Amino acid sequence: MQPAVCRILDANLDRAREGLRIVEEWCRFGLNSSQFSDECKQLRQELASWHTLDLRLARDTPGDPGTELTHPQEEQRSGLGTLLQANFCRVEEALRVVEEYSKLYNPKMGAAFKQMRYRVYILESHLLGYQRHQRLAQSYLYLVTSPTEGLFHVVEAALQGGLSLVQYRDKDTADLDRLETARQLRQLCHQYGAIFLVNDRIDLALAVDADGVHLGQQDMPIAIARQLLGPQKIIGRSTTNPEEMQRAIQEGADYIGVGPVYETPTKAGKAPVGLEYIRHVAKNVSIPWFAIGGIDVNNVNEVLNAGAQRVAVVRAIVRAEQPTLVTQYFLAQLARVQPRTTP
User: Where is this region: Thiamine-phosphate synthase (predicted)?
Assistant: First the structure.
């Protein structure tokens, strides 16, 4: 039994170290994060300290039938998030195997790997949440969908134009249909590295593992939404005046919507807030915020000149004949008002 146990430990220690190195490379070169890079490196070094010579000598690569096994999903990744999650799963599974089999080899090793596995769970949660919020901070154009024929084509065309933030909004369709649409939109967004949020419905966001939710003033309190979704998901809140703005920030919203700036059928019966509220928010808000409501290619520069640096649109893209070109136009105008960074 002992040679087989040693081979199992050797193979899974290698697997865990390889997976962590893949995650570490992104933390180092993709995120430029010394914090996450150091944690990955420390975990790898701890793994190496348990990867002793007797375990390595038990290796029998030519006689291992597993070297010929593969799966189509291993040969492709739909996006960076999928790549990172796949390797976190690889590490966590390997650590669990080591934890169990090391009880037959060295009980102290089993206890150490149990704690190590929990550290990886925490690292995964923090890293994926960090990536979401970093992506939010870098997103300036926000597409809020409305039920329309060819919705997936429109969204993909906008994503091809550089869109990085999508909200699925549909208040009337049956839940089963909404669930399937949300699943497909999430997959599409993640394929392009974009954030996918769900309007109002926390249950739907949880069901499809969306990146977060957008809540109206009459929806779930942010504190409860945070308990349900966890600390790493994104929560946005609609606001129409300075009081709602301040309350949303105090409650912990990750971003706020500001509007409706102009009259829009999406918010039928709601008076537009105009550009004055935009000017107020521009002077008083440090978290990401998006001007929304009736914004299109004809008036977007008025909104930007009032102080907005991010906008959310619905009909301007959903009903566009060429969603990719319209998306690129909006992004070009938004790029004009972004603060310049010193090289």
Answer: 120-343
